[in-house]
Amino acid sequence: MNIVKNTPVGIYEKALPETMSWMEKLNLAAECGYDFLEISIDESESKLERLHWNRYQKSELLQGILATGIPILSMCLSGHRKYPMGSESNSTRQRSLDIMEKAIQFSVDLGIRVIQLAGYDVYYEAGNEKTKELYCESMRQSVELASKANVILAIENMDHPFMNSISKVMEYIDLYQSPMLQAYPDIGNLTAWDLSIKEELCKGGGHIVGIHIKDTVNQVFRRIDFGEGIVDFSKAFQVLYELHYQGPFVIEMWSENNVDSKEKMIYARQWVQEKMKHAGYIFT
């Protein structure tokens, strides 16, 4: 895959069968026509354990990347849902920062450019002004860690009122004024919240370093097949093209337990790329 010449379209790891080895996952991504993979570090202990891999385990994945030509350009770090950065528990908040530090080091070792952060102060409990203040302080420390490693942190607008728009994401980008903190819009989430795709993407402007692509309906954020939801993909891609966005797009799917996951991956890429071509994006 030649990412430099193409508009890069990647696939979220959870679209692939979870029982596959890394070599099998990377090969499958290549077979389905994708340019890269976005790795998942969610709140499950098995995924969080990846941050403790030794050199041999990391080397094994790097060998797979070199053998298949499919890099891992981004990490979806949703482990903070269980260990939130705005938690009023000191031990939980410290765990969140430990996860962040290890995720940054993992990214350096594996060549990952962007860590996508879920925009939550807390998730499984009610937030308040205190959790927001604590989140701000944890984010400050996280940006400092990322800056030292030259790894970009990018906040995604979420399925949660705390950070459900790019406008809210930009408040934090403006607050910290660091090139290591940017925006990672999810156009499906924008639509599910009935927000203007054009207005929100324009507010992100030159701070956008990744795009999550999925279909949604009102207040339903996951597992909607492409074409069955209400997202105006044509408008979204047109706005991004007019903003001169040429960065990576990630198709976000959860088909890891589906027997037809490969067929779904191929269909999704073809369906999405056709919409992108109409907006002006080129695929060779």
Textual characterization of the structure:
This protein starts with 8 loop residues before the first strand and ends in a 5-residue tail after the last helix. With 284 residues, the chain is an alpha/beta fold. It has ten helices and ten strands. The strands form two sheets. Strands 6-5-4-3-2-1-10-7 form an eight-stranded parallel sheet, covered by helices on one side. A two-stranded antiparallel sheet has the order 8-9. The mean pLDDT is 95. It is globular, with a radius of gyration of 18 Å.
Please sum up the structure shown.
This protein is an alpha/beta fold.
Set out the fold topology.
Blueprint: E1 9-12, H1 22-31, E2 36-41, H2 45-48, H3 55-68, E3 72-77, H4 90-110, E4 114-118, H5 129-149, E5 152-156, H6 166-176, E6 181-183, H7 187-192, H8 197-204, E7 211-213, E8 215-217, E9 220-224, H9 233-242, E10 249-251, H10 261-279
Parallel strand pairs: 1-2, 1-10, 2-3, 3-4, 4-5, 5-6, 7-10
Antiparallel strand pairs: 8-9
Helix pairs in contact: 1-3, 4-5, 6-8, 8-9, 9-10
